Amino acid sequence: MELANLIGTIGPLEVRGGATGQIAALTYDAAAAVPGALHFCVPGFRVDGHDFAEQAEAAGAVALVVERFLDIDLPQRTNQPPPDTTPPEPIKLRIDASGQVFWNESPTPMSALRNMMQSEVERDPNNQPTLEIDTNDDADYGVLAKVLATARNANMQKIGFVKK
Fold first, then answer.
1. Comparing 16-30, 31-45, 76-90, which segment has the lowest mean pLDDT?
2. Secondary structure (H, E, C), the chain
3. Does the domain formed by 3-78 have CATH 3.40.1390.10?
4. Domain residue limits, the chain
5. Is the pTM of this model over 0.90?
6. Residue 120: which of 104, 136, 135, 134 has the closest Cα?
7. Which of 14, 17, 131, 159 is the most buried (most CB within 10 A)?
8. Using N-to-C axis directions, what is the helix angle for 110-123 and 141-153, rounded to 10°?
9. Which of 25-34, 61-70, 80-89 has the lowest mean pLDDT?
10. In sequence order, which residues have a C-beta less than 8 Å from that of residue 41 and are 6 or more positions away?
Protein backbone atom coordinates (compact mmCIF):
# COMPACT_ATOMS: atom_id res chain seq x y z
CA MET A 1 0.00 0.00 0.00
CA GLU A 2 1.22 3.50 -0.81
CA LEU A 3 2.06 5.53 2.33
CA ALA A 4 0.28 8.62 0.98
CA ASN A 5 -2.94 6.59 0.49
CA LEU A 6 -2.73 5.23 4.01
CA ILE A 7 -2.27 8.72 5.44
CA GLY A 8 -5.25 9.95 3.43
CA THR A 9 -7.39 7.07 4.70
CA ILE A 10 -6.60 7.24 8.41
CA GLY A 11 -6.32 11.03 8.69
CA PRO A 12 -3.64 11.47 11.37
CA LEU A 13 -3.61 14.66 13.39
CA GLU A 14 -0.20 15.64 12.07
CA VAL A 15 2.34 14.24 9.61
CA ARG A 16 6.00 15.23 9.52
CA GLY A 17 8.36 14.28 6.73
CA GLY A 18 7.61 13.10 3.24
CA ALA A 19 4.60 10.89 2.61
CA THR A 20 6.01 8.71 -0.15
CA GLY A 21 6.91 5.05 -0.26
CA GLN A 22 5.33 1.61 -0.28
CA ILE A 23 4.23 0.00 2.97
CA ALA A 24 5.26 -3.67 2.87
CA ALA A 25 4.71 -4.57 6.53
CA LEU A 26 3.43 -3.28 9.87
CA THR A 27 5.73 -3.67 12.89
CA TYR A 28 5.85 -2.66 16.53
CA ASP A 29 8.98 -4.61 17.50
CA ALA A 30 12.06 -2.88 16.08
CA ALA A 31 13.87 -6.24 15.91
CA ALA A 32 11.14 -7.44 13.52
CA ALA A 33 11.23 -4.34 11.30
CA VAL A 34 11.90 -5.04 7.63
CA PRO A 35 12.48 -2.85 4.59
CA GLY A 36 9.25 -1.05 3.76
CA ALA A 37 7.77 -1.38 7.27
CA LEU A 38 5.41 1.12 8.83
CA HIS A 39 6.73 0.95 12.39
CA PHE A 40 4.56 1.75 15.42
CA CYS A 41 6.45 3.26 18.37
CA VAL A 42 4.39 2.07 21.33
CA PRO A 43 5.18 3.01 24.93
CA GLY A 44 5.03 -0.07 27.18
CA PHE A 45 5.25 -0.81 30.87
CA ARG A 46 8.99 -1.54 30.86
CA VAL A 47 10.29 0.07 27.68
CA ASP A 48 9.20 2.79 25.27
CA GLY A 49 9.06 1.83 21.61
CA HIS A 50 10.11 5.37 20.70
CA ASP A 51 13.58 4.46 22.05
CA PHE A 52 13.94 1.83 19.29
CA ALA A 53 12.85 3.98 16.34
CA GLU A 54 16.42 4.33 15.05
CA GLN A 55 16.78 0.53 15.05
CA ALA A 56 13.59 0.24 12.98
CA GLU A 57 14.91 2.92 10.61
CA ALA A 58 18.20 1.06 10.23
CA ALA A 59 16.25 -2.11 9.38
CA GLY A 60 14.49 -0.27 6.55
CA ALA A 61 11.26 1.08 8.05
CA VAL A 62 9.85 3.77 5.75
CA ALA A 63 7.67 5.60 8.29
CA LEU A 64 6.80 5.75 11.98
CA VAL A 65 3.55 6.08 13.93
CA VAL A 66 4.43 7.95 17.12
CA GLU A 67 2.90 9.54 20.20
CA ARG A 68 5.57 12.24 20.21
CA PHE A 69 7.75 13.33 17.33
CA LEU A 70 11.33 12.10 17.17
CA ASP A 71 14.49 13.57 15.70
CA ILE A 72 14.68 10.96 12.91
CA ASP A 73 14.60 11.55 9.18
CA LEU A 74 11.49 9.43 8.51
CA PRO A 75 7.88 10.43 7.92
CA GLN A 76 6.07 10.42 11.27
CA ARG A 77 2.39 10.65 12.12
CA THR A 78 0.68 11.07 15.47
CA ASN A 79 -2.82 10.71 16.87
CA GLN A 80 -1.93 12.86 19.86
CA PRO A 81 -3.33 16.39 19.54
CA PRO A 82 -0.74 19.14 19.56
CA PRO A 83 -0.51 21.01 22.86
CA ASP A 84 -2.78 24.00 23.21
CA THR A 85 -0.56 27.06 23.04
CA THR A 86 -3.37 29.59 23.05
CA PRO A 87 -2.44 32.05 25.76
CA PRO A 88 -4.90 32.05 28.66
CA GLU A 89 -6.85 35.17 29.54
CA PRO A 90 -4.71 37.59 31.55
CA ILE A 91 -5.32 38.06 35.25
CA LYS A 92 -6.27 41.65 35.94
CA LEU A 93 -4.88 42.56 39.35
CA ARG A 94 -5.71 46.05 40.57
CA ILE A 95 -4.48 47.87 43.67
CA ASP A 96 -6.64 50.84 44.63
CA ALA A 97 -5.65 53.98 46.57
CA SER A 98 -6.53 52.35 49.91
CA GLY A 99 -4.30 49.33 49.17
CA GLN A 100 -7.18 46.94 48.48
CA VAL A 101 -6.23 44.24 45.95
CA PHE A 102 -8.72 43.14 43.27
CA TRP A 103 -8.32 39.89 41.30
CA ASN A 104 -10.32 40.26 38.07
CA GLU A 105 -12.39 42.98 39.79
CA SER A 106 -13.14 40.84 42.89
CA PRO A 107 -11.77 42.14 46.22
CA THR A 108 -9.10 39.68 47.34
CA PRO A 109 -7.18 39.51 50.62
CA MET A 110 -3.39 39.46 50.32
CA SER A 111 -3.38 36.15 52.22
CA ALA A 112 -5.28 34.45 49.36
CA LEU A 113 -3.07 35.71 46.51
CA ARG A 114 -0.32 33.08 46.69
CA ASN A 115 -2.74 30.14 46.46
CA MET A 116 -4.63 31.81 43.61
CA MET A 117 -1.39 32.50 41.73
CA GLN A 118 -0.06 28.98 42.32
CA SER A 119 -3.31 27.51 41.02
CA GLU A 120 -2.91 29.50 37.80
CA VAL A 121 0.73 28.40 37.42
CA GLU A 122 -0.11 24.72 38.07
CA ARG A 123 -2.84 24.77 35.43
CA ASP A 124 -0.10 24.86 32.77
CA PRO A 125 3.39 25.92 33.91
CA ASN A 126 4.51 26.39 30.28
CA ASN A 127 1.53 28.51 29.24
CA GLN A 128 0.79 30.80 32.15
CA PRO A 129 -1.55 33.77 32.04
CA THR A 130 -0.05 37.24 32.23
CA LEU A 131 -0.53 38.99 35.55
CA GLU A 132 -1.54 42.54 34.53
CA ILE A 133 -1.00 44.85 37.48
CA ASP A 134 -2.83 48.17 37.59
CA THR A 135 -1.82 50.31 40.56
CA ASN A 136 -3.48 53.53 41.59
CA ASP A 137 -0.98 56.40 41.73
CA ASP A 138 -1.85 56.95 45.41
CA ALA A 139 -1.50 53.29 46.43
CA ASP A 140 1.07 52.29 49.03
CA TYR A 141 4.20 50.96 47.31
CA GLY A 142 4.51 48.30 50.02
CA VAL A 143 1.34 46.59 48.79
CA LEU A 144 2.76 46.43 45.27
CA ALA A 145 6.04 45.03 46.63
CA LYS A 146 4.11 42.30 48.48
CA VAL A 147 2.14 41.44 45.33
CA LEU A 148 5.35 41.18 43.29
CA ALA A 149 7.04 39.02 45.95
CA THR A 150 3.97 36.76 46.08
CA ALA A 151 4.01 36.41 42.28
CA ARG A 152 7.70 35.52 42.33
CA ASN A 153 7.16 32.95 45.11
CA ALA A 154 4.28 31.41 43.13
CA ASN A 155 6.61 31.11 40.07
CA MET A 156 4.54 33.39 37.87
CA GLN A 157 6.56 34.04 34.73
CA LYS A 158 4.57 36.77 32.97
CA ILE A 159 3.99 40.02 34.80
CA GLY A 160 3.04 43.29 33.17
CA PHE A 161 1.97 46.72 34.32
CA VAL A 162 -1.00 48.63 32.96
CA LYS A 163 0.06 51.97 31.54
CA LYS A 164 -2.38 54.79 31.99
1. 76-90
2. CEHHHHHHHHCCCEEECCCCCECCEEECCHHHCCCCEEEECCECCCCEHHHHHHHHHHCCCCEEEECCCCCCCCCEEECCCCCCCCCCCCEEEEECCCCCEEECCEEECHHHHHHHHHHHHHHCCCCCCCEEEEECCCCCHHHHHHHHHHHHHCCCCCEEECCC
3. yes
4. 3-78, 91-161
5. no
6. 104
7. 131
8. 30
9. 80-89
10. 28, 48, 49, 50, 52, 53, 56, 64, 65, 66, 67, 70
Cα–Cα distance for residue pair 24/22, rounded to 1 Å: 6
In terms of C-beta density within 10 A (0-12 exposed, 13-18 middle, 19 or more buried), how is residue 66 classed?
Answer: buried
Range 91-161: architecture per CATH: 2-Layer Sandwich (3.30)
- Non-local (6+) Cβ contacts of 40 within 8 A are 26, 27, 28, 49, 64, 65
Residue 97 has pLDDT above 80, yes or no: yes
In angstroms, the first-to-last Cα distance of the chain is 63
